[in-house]
Amino acid sequence: MTMQASRTRRSFVMEEAVAILGRTPATLDAMLRGLPEGWIVAHEGSDTWSPFDIVGHLIHGEQADWLPRARIILEHGEARAFDRFDRFAQFSVSEGRTLASLLDEFAALRQKSLRELAMLRLTDSDLDRHGRHPELGVVTLRQLLATWVAHDLDHVMQISRVLGRQYSDEVGPWRAYLRIIRDAPG
Amino acid sequence: MTMQASRTRRSFVMEEAVAILGRTPATLDAMLRGLPEGWIVAHEGSDTWSPFDIVGHLIHGEQADWLPRARIILEHGEARAFDRFDRFAQFSVSEGRTLASLLDEFAALRQKSLRELAMLRLTDSDLDRHGRHPELGVVTLRQLLATWVAHDLDHVMQISRVLGRQYSDEVGPWRAYLRIIRDAPG
Q1: Where are the beta strands (DSSP E) in A12-163?
Q2: Which residue, of A110, B28, B30, B164, has the fewest CB within 10 Å?
Q3: Do residues A170 and B142 make contact, with C-beta atoms less than 8 angstroms apart?
Q4: CA distances (Å), A171 to each of A177, B56, B84, B106, in order?
């Protein structure tokens, strides 16, 4: 592998993955806690999500997606497909909640998920085990865990984008230099 | 303004802008401090930037871009164009530094910038004042400050993207669901 290649792609390494997963709650906390309400409920139009919606979605992921699916792979392999994940669960789950309480809940759930992940003491051959996604078909446990990491980062990216695009009309000619505003909406 | 419009675009309000600007150092700290080295130097190929490079760029922005340009507008209006900003200064400035020391420096500089910004006690008519960008032409102080906010968020977005794309080959079929990986590189 060239130096270049090694800087653009990483192989899945558990400690490196956990280093990202463990930081996401504090990242969201630093970005969002105490922000004026207008930022929290901002979105990108029609049925796109606000920072508030996204934190609710991440909570539901801890409850219904990542560790639960890892357990299905370990216990049932390809024999049992994952339960479908409800991408809209947060709209009922988060109703009437404050952002602060959602951030607290996400942090607690993530800490619990990572504790349970560590207790599984997954080996390389565990990571190669197959499961079955209801739409995508056969996947490995390694792919599930790598997706957990990328999914966190995707939503941190989304929150930044949702916030930054709020000033699309305010930056004037600088728009040309700001990818966050210039690019296609989310 | 419809509810919809009010959630997709915000007018510049100083307190709301400062709320974002003040959170960026802690956001970067939560995301990056102590991460394994491979994540810190990861990039998107050829001459794209790593998280390490981006923190250096943000430091240079505090020193040479935002407040200095605001002062040029207030003191000289359109009569004096801004100094050109060196988008590659971080490569020499950050050489041999640790990420931790760059994060500390950025946090200190940002705190100082925001203290000085508050001391300017800018009025609405100050925000309407014109300056001259060496390439973009006439801009207002309000546009400069809105760009400062969007620029922070653009780079938080970029760091998330750089990190997430490292697992492009590891997520397998989930690639289809992950915008961070599916979309065009940075």
Answers
A1: 130-133, 137-140
A2: B30
A3: yes
A4: 10, 23, 18, 23
pTM: 0.96
Q: How many CB contacts within 8 angstroms connect chain A with chain B?
A: 205
Lookup result for tokens 């130096």? A3
Task: Enumerate residues 48 to 67 of chain B having a beta carbon within 8 A of any beta carbon in chain A.
Answer: 50
Spatial distance between the Cα atoms of B22 and B115, rounded to a whole number of angstroms: 10
Return the bridge partners of A81, or none: A132
Contact A55, B76 (CB under 8 A): no
Q: What does the CA dihedral B186, B29, A11, B172 come to, rounded to 10 degrees?
A: -60
Q: Which has the closest alpha carbon to B56: B10, B92, B108?
A: B92
Q: Are B10 and A42 in contact (CB under 8 A)?
A: yes
Distance, in Å, from the CA atom of B89 to the CA atom of B11, rounded to the nearest integer, reads 32
Q: Chain B: nearest CA to A27, how far in angstroms?
A: 5
Determine whether the interchain pair A167/B146 forms a contact, defined as Cβ–Cβ distance below 8 Å: yes
How far is the CA of A167 from the CAs of A23, A171, B60, B143, B147, in angstroms? 27, 6, 23, 9, 8
B154, closest residue in chain A (CA to CA)? A180
A-chain residues near B6 (CB < 8 A): 38
CB A33 within 8 A of CB B67: no
Chain B CB contacts of A182 under 8 Å are none
Per-residue pLDDT of B96-121, as tens digits, reads: 999 999 999 999 999 999 999 999 99
Distance CA(B145)–CA(B176), nearest Å, equals 37
pLDDT in tens, B40-78: 999 999 999 999 999 999 999 999 999 999 999 999 999
Cβ atoms of B82 and A174 within 8 Å: the answer is no
Task: Decide: helix, strand or coil at residue A140.
Answer: strand
Q: With an 8 Å Cβ cutoff, is B121 touching chain A?
A: no
ipTM value of the model? 0.95
Task: Tell me which chain B residue has its CA closest to the CA of residue A169.
Answer: B9
Question: Max CA-CA distance within chain A?
Answer: 57
Q: Which of A21, A98, A26 is nearest to A65 (CA)?
A: A21
